[in-house]
Amino acid sequence: MKRLLFTIQSYTYLVPAFLAAGDFEPGDVEHKVFPDGERYLRVATDCWGRDVTLLGGTPNDLDWLELYDLGYAISRAGARSLSIIIPYFGYATMERAVKPGEVVTAKTRAHLVSAIPSCEGGNRVFLFDLHTDGIAYYFDDSHVTRHVYGAPLICEAVKALMGDRPYVLAATDAGRAKWVQSLARDLGVEPAFVYKERREGGLGVTGVNADVAGREVVIYDDMIRTGGSLVQAARAYRAAGATKVHAVTSHLVLPGESLEKIRASGEITTLIGTDSHPGSQKLASTPGALCSVAPLLARALEPA
């Protein structure tokens, strides 16, 4: 029997890709919003004894609540097992407290999902390219977690972009250097990163650690939000002699007018990434800009 596939509203754009990538049967959810703002949800497909997959990243608080509400309802409806796929984990950068009293929101949200009752066959949580590996351990032991790394997707995207042209794989700063070094080894290219120091008004670039003169540079970062760090790094690589700067990311968040600002900077020749976040759909009409996480995450559900 096929797995039942449910999704939260903000991730319906990924459903066709998941149906094409795996042996799923789409499940129905009824949604209503009352005049006072309260929401009505009903799992309209019978889950009794079924293996169920719930798809939903968590870019905002409403998404977190919808994921929890649906997961709870599916479990209480008698699903045999529940696999929760979170392509983008919101609040991933709030994974530790710096000042006394700060809320470690990545941990509190993991506890929220962990409160979904366990099904007879167990609950599993699949996470994609987390900002920090340790977030996977914030979930309760009743929920088995698996961190699915996006390196294969990123490498394929970079190879498709660059073809046979020589290039350097770069980071926005030394903090992401380890990730870039690992990807650079997989791709067989040289890594690079920029040095930064704290100055009045914020961080400033002080130099580049590799020779990029006369070469194309591909910057990798795990997520692109406002694009400020990306544009600053691209400017540094261009100043060091790079002929072109491209950017690839696991999560295209792109809030507000950030995409327009990145393009207006003139520093980034090409911007590509995965479809893990709804913000990625701003690039859906750009040929070759997106690679889907669906095949990778659908395979992760299957036994080894």
Automatic annotation (TrEMBL):
Q: Which SMART domains match?
A: Pribosyltran_N
* Top-rank EC class of the record's enzyme: transferase
For this UniProt record, give its keywords in alphabetical order, as a comma-separated list.
Answer: ATP-binding, Kinase, Nucleotide biosynthesis, Nucleotide-binding, Transferase
Keyword ATP-binding found:
yes
Q: Which residues form the Phosphoribosyltransferase domain?
A: 166-251
Q: Which GO terms describe its biological process?
A: 5-phosphoribose 1-diphosphate biosynthetic process; purine nucleotide biosynthetic process
Q: Which Gene3D superfamilies does the annotation name?
A: 3.40.50.2020
Any single Pfam family the record assigns to this protein: Pribosyltran
Ranges for domain Ribose-phosphate pyrophosphokinase N-terminal come to 5-114
* Enzyme Commission number(s) of this protein: 2.7.6.1
**Catalytic reaction annotation:** D-ribose 5-phosphate + ATP = 5-phospho-alpha-D-ribose 1-diphosphate + AMP + H(+)
Q: Name one GO molecular function term.
A: ATP binding
Provide the Gene Ontology terms for cellular component. cytoplasm; ribose phosphate diphosphokinase complex
Q: Which family does it belong to?
A: Belongs to the ribose-phosphate pyrophosphokinase family.
Q: Any idea what this protein is called? A: ribose-phosphate diphosphokinase
State the organism named in the record.
Chondromyces crocatus
The lineage is: Bacteria, Pseudomonadati, Myxococcota, Polyangia, Polyangiales
